[in-house]
Amino acid sequence: MRSEHQQDLINRLKTIEGHVRGVQRMVDSHAYCIDLLKQTQAIQQSLAKLDSIILAEHLRTCVTTAIRSDEISERERVVNELLQVFEKLH
User: Fold this and answer.
1) Maximum CA pair distance of the chain?
2) Structural domains of the chain, count
3) Number of C-alpha atoms within 13 angstroms, CB side, residue 26?
4) DSSP conformation class of 71
5) Are 36 and 23 in contact (CB under 8 A)?
6) What CA–CA distance (Å, rounded) separates 80 from 32?
7) Closest CA to 19 of 39, 48, 45
8) What does the buried/exposed string (b/e) look like for 33-52 if buried means 16 or more CB atoms within 10 Å of the residue's CB?
9) Predicted local confidence at residue 86, as pLDDT
10) GO:BP terms for this protein (predicted)?
11) pTM of the entire structure?
């Protein structure tokens, strides 16, 4: 992973971590359930955006390199990795 993307991911993860801690404080203080749900949905959206950035970077670097490779096994490996990730989503 390129360093400029790495720092972006770290910053996003720190933001998500802070958000999760905020929700924990809300639970501790018996916050209204709908408010909790709104906050957990925001966390899920942030995680989905993080996944999207990671996937895009992977496609631009590792997958592109493997697809251009003369090694058939390397091309198959990266395709299978992607398929496994998406199979777990469904």
Assistant:
1) 59
2) 1
3) 16
4) -
5) yes
6) 44
7) 39
8) eeeeeebeeebeebeeebee
9) 85
10) negative regulation of DNA-templated transcription
11) 0.84
Joined together, the tokens standing for residue 67 give 């697809």
| Distance from the first to the final alpha carbon of the chain | 27
In CATH, what number is assigned to the domain containing residue 80?
1.20.58.1000
List all residues 6 or more positions away from 27 whose beta carbon is below 8 Å from its beta carbon: 36
Per residue in 30-79, pLDDT tens? 999 999 999 999 999 999 999 999 999 999 999 999 999 999 999 999 99
Residue with tokens 């990730």: 85
Q: Which token pair is 32? A: 């209204």
Q: 51 lies in which domain range?
A: 3-89
C-alpha 33/C-alpha 48 separation (Å) is 22
Q: Identify the pLDDT of residue 3.
A: 75
